[in-house]
Amino acid sequence: MLFLFLTISIVSCKNSEKKAEAVKKPAVKLYQLSGGSIFVKKLEVFSQDTTYTGQTKQFADAYYVIAHPKGNLMWDAGLPEQLVMPEPYDEPSGVYRIQRPDSLVNQLKSIGFEIDDFKYFAMSHSHFDHTGHANYMKNATWIVQENEYNSVAGDSTEVKNPAVAALRKVEKITGDHDVFGDGTVVIKYMPGHTIGHQVLYVEVEGLEKPVLLTGDLYHFEENRTHKRVPSFNYDAEATLHSMELFEAFAKEKNAEVIIQHSPKAFEKLEKLLKI
Fold first, then answer.
1. First and final CA of the chain: distance in angstroms?
2. Most buried residue, 140, 194, 211, 232, by most Cβ within 10 Å?
């Protein structure tokens, strides 16, 4: 009987060790880079009503490098490199004053990367302030929601987005997508801002909480608090539903939410990544 007990105990210990090995996550690193500065001269476009009429606001425009043992992912692509200029540019609509601080090559060099180091490329969505240097990522596999792809680059699209024209290696997805298959880097489908808008969940080595990048689900803190939807969103109701799903997921994972256009969030993540 004692022998049987010892045998069961040994087998149980070995099984526990195997389970511990199975759940051990790989070391994932996250880098934050500035894809530009956006001064919003007419903040009212970021609500369905007149809440922000007459107001202005400074936005950040971040993009990110995720280094994983199975390959590197770039998330978003900032503003076009034509905007790397001494003075900011007032675009024709009168809503934005925009400028990019430096080229992709120089920015990647500052963290020890080159353009060809990326296996994957994904964007939260296909607006101009997220597709800026997308054309440089032609050797990476573009991971994109199929409906988003069809809206900007599909065969039936009348006006194709020129920023993504160079991207030939495409992985079309439908819904959530575990990039490396281990739960550390997960694209979450959160439509509404555009038809195929998505956010990114990252478990970063050394951080107490996982990071949840919002894309343009929210643009600044007050937008998140009051669930305000920009007037130019593809689908307001879908946006609000995505906000509900996002908040539930953030709570479930106890995630550090980073609003990608928020200067406050940019500074906060910078500090976290330096700890």
1. 53
2. 194
Instruction: Give the separation between CA 26 and CA 121, rounded to whole angstroms.
Output: 20
The C-alpha angle with vertex 148 and arms to 144 and 152, in degrees rounded to 5, equals: 110
Q: Is the CB of residue 83 less than 8 Å from the CB of residue 98?
A: yes
Structure tokens at 188: 């979450």
| 105 closest CA partner among 117, 113, 97 | 113
SS3 142: strand
**All domains of the chain in start order, with CATH:** 27-274 (3.60.15.10)
Per-residue tokens: 141 = 């596999």
CA 147 to chain centre: 18
Tokens for 192, please give them.
């509404």
CA distances from 61 to 31, 43, 184, 239, 256 (A): 14, 16, 24, 20, 18
Reported pTM:
0.91
Do the Cβ atoms of 76 and 62 come closer than 8 Å?
Answer: yes
SS3 state at 136: helix
Calculate ∠ Cα 229-232-236, nearest 5°.
45
**DSSP bridge pairs for 29:** 67
H-only helix segments in the chain: 2-23, 104-109, 146-152, 221-226, 236-253, 263-274
Rounded to the nearest 5°, which phi and psi values hold at 105? -55, -50
